[in-house]
C-alpha cells in the first residue's frame, strides 16, 4: 500500500519540460517514489510525481501518470514507500582518516593532532593507506546517502582513484601544508604534485579539485599567496580550516598581532571561491565580512563538539546571508561520516545555543546538507537539488519504518527522525551505487576486511 502523507505537506505540481505525448520517449530510468523533495523551491514536497532520467541527467520531474504515458523507460523503479531527495554533499571531510577512527578520543584539537594524529600519519600515511581509507569511507558515504565529498588529505591522486572506483562524485583537495609528509617534501612539491593531480583529473565528469591550505597555523604567507594565485590561474576554489578554536585565534594574535581571519583578508585569500571550515570564533564584523566576501562556511558541528572546539554561529551567519554547507570532518574526530546525523545536530545545536527554537529550521538544515554544499563547491548548477537538467544524483529514503510513521511533514522527518540507516538507494549521474541497500560498485566485505588489516599495523600512542 502506498504511503499516506497527511496534512501540512506542500504539494506543488511544477511546470517542467516533458516529451511529446504522442510517442513514448525511450529513456534510461523512471523513478516513481511516494514523494520527491527537490530542495528547491524550498519547502516543496511533490507527491504522485516521477523523476525521468536519461544519460545521467534529470530529464523532467512530472506527475507520475503523465510520466508513465510519456516515457518508455529501460528501467522503472517503483518506490511506493520512499521519499527521493538529492544526494547529500559532505562539504568537509578527510576520507582516508576512517582508518584512524577511534585512535585517539576525548582530546582537544591540538593535543589530538600533535600528540596522536600527526605522529600516526607520519608513520602510516602512504598511497595504499589513502586508497584503502577512501574506499572504506566511500562505502560508509554511499550507505549514508552522501553522493559528493569535499575531501582534504594527502595523496589526492589516490583519493580520486578510490572515489572514482566507487562511482562517487568528489572534490579532491590539493593539500598545502608547511611540513613534509609521505606525499610531498615541502611547499614546492605540494604545489607541483597538486597541479599534476588537477591536470590528471581534468575532464573527469565526477572529480574536481580545490586548493587546500591546511590551516592558518600550518601554512606560511608565501604559500598562501601562491595558493591564491594558482587557484585564480586554474579557476578552482580554496578550502581551509579557519578559526577552529579559541586557542588558534589567541595564539595567532600573540605571535603575529593579527587574528587569522584578518591575515587571510590582508593576503587576499577571501572571496566567493573560499570555503572556511569550522569558523567557531567570529566577531560580528567577521560575520559581516564573510557575507561581503561571499565566503562559504563548512559547518562541522559534531567534530566541533567532540574536540570541544566551540560553536559555529550558524544563526548569525545565515541571518547575514552567508552560504552554509555541512561537513562531518574526518572519522578520526567525529567519529562517523553520517551526514544525516550531522544535519540533525546542526539544526538542534543552533536552537540550544541561541535559545531560539526557530533557529536553523529543518528546511534550512536540509538545504545546507545539499544545495548549500553544492553552492560552496561551485557545483550548484550541476547537483544539490532535483531540477530538470541537473545530474541525476539522488537518494531514496524508506519511510515505512516505525520511527518514520505517521508522516505529517516529510522535511521534518528527513531532518529530525530519519537516519542514514533509512537510505535504501543511491544514484550518482543516473548510475546506481546502492540498490535496495546493496552496494553495487564496491565489494563491501573486501573493503571491510582490508580496513581490519590496517588495525593490526597501526598502534595507538600510549
Ligand atoms: C594535510 S591533510 C589534512 C590534515 O588535517 C588534519 N585534520 C583532520 N581534522 C582536522 C581538524 O579538525 N582540524 C585541523 N586539522 C585536521 C589531518 O589529520 C591531516 O593532517
Ligand atoms: Zn578537518
The average pLDDT is 95
Total DSSP E strands: 17
Question: Cα distance, first to last residue?
Answer: 56 Å
Strand residue content: 15-25%
Helix/strand-derived category reads: alpha/beta
Tally of distinct domains: 2
CATH superfamily annotation of the largest domain: Metal-dependent hydrolases
> According to CATH, what is the class of the largest domain?
Alpha Beta
- What's the CATH topology label of the largest domain? TIM Barrel
Helix content: 25-40%
Say which molecules are bound, naming each kind only once. ligand LTUXU72L, zinc ion
Give the topology.
Elements: E1 25-36, E2 46-47, E3 49-54, E4 57-63, H1 64-70, E5 71-86, E6 88-93, H2 109-124, H3 127-143, E7 146-151, H4 156-166, E8 169-176, H5 187-201, E9 207-213, H6 221-234, E10 237-242, H7 246-256, H8 260-266, E11 274-278, H9 284-293, E12 296-299, H10 301-306, H11 314-320, E13 324-326, H12 339-354, H13 362-376, E14 394-398, H14 410-417, E15 423-428, E16 431-435, E17 438-439, H15 444-457
Parallel strand pairs: 1-5, 6-7, 7-8, 8-9, 9-10, 10-11, 11-12, 12-13
Antiparallel strand pairs: 1-2, 1-3, 3-4, 5-14, 14-15, 15-16, 16-17
Helix pairs in contact: 3-4, 3-15, 12-13, 13-14
The structure holds ligand LTUXU72L and zinc ion.
Describe the fold and architecture.
There is one protein chain. The chain is of the alpha/beta class and 462 residues long. 38% of the residues lie in helices and 23% in strands. The protein has helices spanning 64-70, 109-124, 127-143, 156-166, 187-201, 221-234, 246-256, 260-266, 284-293, 301-306, 314-320, 339-354, 362-376, 410-417, 444-457, and strands at residues 25-36, 46-47, 49-54, 57-63, 71-86, 88-93, 146-151, 169-176, 207-213, 237-242, 274-278, 296-299, 324-326, 394-398, 423-428, 431-435, 438-439. The strands form two sheets. Strands 1, 2, 3, 4, 5, 14, 15, 16 and 17 form a nine-stranded mixed beta sheet that branches. Strands 6-7-8-9-10-11-12-13 form an eight-stranded parallel beta sheet. Strand 16 (431-435) and strand 17 form a beta hairpin. The chain is globular, with a radius of gyration of 22 Å. The chain starts with 24 loop residues before the first strand and ends in a 5-residue tail after the last helix. The structure holds ligand LTUXU72L and zinc ion. Its cofactor is Zn(2+). Keywords: Hydrolase, Metal-binding, Zinc. It holds the Pfam family Amidohydro_1. It catalyses: S-adenosyl-L-homocysteine + H2O + H(+) = S-inosyl-L-homocysteine + NH4(+); S-methyl-5'-thioadenosine + H2O + H(+) = S-methyl-5'-thioinosine + NH4(+).
Amino acid at each position: 500500500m502506498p504511503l499516506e502523507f497527511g496534512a501540512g505537506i506542500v504539494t506543488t505540481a511544477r511546470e517542467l519540460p516533458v516529451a511529446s505525448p504522442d510517442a513514448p520517449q525511450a529513456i534510461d530510468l523512471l523513478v516513481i517514489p511516494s514523494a520527491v523533495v527537490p530542495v528547491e523551491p524550498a519547502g516543496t514536497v511533490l507527491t504522485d510525481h516521477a523523476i525521468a532520467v536519461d544519460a545521467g541527467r534529470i530529464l523532467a520531474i512530472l506527475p507520475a501518470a503523465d510520466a508513465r504515458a510519456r516515457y518508455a523507460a529501460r528501467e522503472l523503479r517503483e518506490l511506493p514507500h520512499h521519499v527521493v531527495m538529492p544526494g547529500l554533499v559532505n562539504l568537509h571531510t578527510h576520507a582516508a582518516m576512517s582508518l584512524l577512527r577511534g585512535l585517539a578520543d576525548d582530546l582537544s584539537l591540538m593535543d589530538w593532532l600533535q600528540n596522536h594524529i600527526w605522529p600516526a600519519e607520519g608513520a602510516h600515511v602512504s598511497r595504499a593507506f589513502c586508497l584503502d581509507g577512501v574506499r572504506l569511507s566511500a562505502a560508509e558515504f554511499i550507505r549514508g546517502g552522501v553522493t559528493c565529498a569535499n575531501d582534504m588529505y594527502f595523496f589526492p591522486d589516490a583519493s580520486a582513484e578510490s572515489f572514482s572506483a566507487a562511482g562517487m562524485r568528489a572534490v579532491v583537495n590539493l593539500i598545502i601544508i608547511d611540513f613534509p609528509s609521505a606525499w610531498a617534501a615541502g611547499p614546492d612539491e605540494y604545489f607541483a604534485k597538486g597541479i599534476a593531480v588537477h591536470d590528471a583529473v581534468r575532464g573527469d565528469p565526477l572529480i574536481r579539485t580545490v586548493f587546500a591550505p591546511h590551516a592558518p597555523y600550518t601554512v606560511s604567507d608565501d604559500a598562501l599567496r601562491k595558493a591564491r594565485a594558482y587557484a585564480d590561474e586554474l579557476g578552482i576554489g580554496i578550502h581551509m580550516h579557519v578559526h577552529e578554536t579559541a586557542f588558534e585565534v589567541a595564539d595567532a594574535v600573540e605571535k603575529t598581532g593579527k587574528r587569522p581571519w584578518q591575515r587571510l583578508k590582508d593576503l587576499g585569500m577571501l572571496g566567493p571561491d573560499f570555503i572556511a571550515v569550522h569558523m567557531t570564533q567570529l566577531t560580528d564584523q567577521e560575520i559581516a565580512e564573510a557575507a561581503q566576501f561571499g565566503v562559504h562556511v563548512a559547518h562541522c558541528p559534531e567534530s566541533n563538539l567532540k574536540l570541544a572546539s566551540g560553536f559555529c554561529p550558524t544563526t548569525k551567519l545565515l541571518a547575514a546571508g552567508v552560504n552554509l554547507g555541512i561537513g562531518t570532518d574526518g572519522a578520526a574526530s567525529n567519529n562517523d561520516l553520517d551526514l544525516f546525523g550531522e544535519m540533525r545536530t546542526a539544526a538542534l545545536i543552533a536552537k540550544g545555543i541561541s535559545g531560539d527554537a526557530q533557529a536553523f529550521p529543518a528546511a534550512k538544515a536540509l538545504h545546507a546538507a545539499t544545495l548549500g554544499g553544492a553552492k560552496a563547491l561551485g557545483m550548484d548548477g550541476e547537483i544539490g537539488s532535483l531540477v530538470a537538467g541537473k545530474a541525476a544524483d539522488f537518494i531514496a529514503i524508506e519511510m515505512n519504518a516505525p520511527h518514520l510513521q505517521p508522516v505529517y511533514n516529510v522535511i521534518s522527518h528527513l531532518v529530525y527522525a530519519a537516519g542514514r540507516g533509512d537510505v535504501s538507494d543511491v544514484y550518482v549521474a543516473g548510475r546506481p551505487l546502492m540498490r535496495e541497500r546493496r552496494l553495487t560498485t564496491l565489494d563491501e566485505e573486501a573493503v571491510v576486511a582490508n580496513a581490519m588489516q590496517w588495525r593490526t599495523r597501526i598502534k595507538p600512542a600510549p
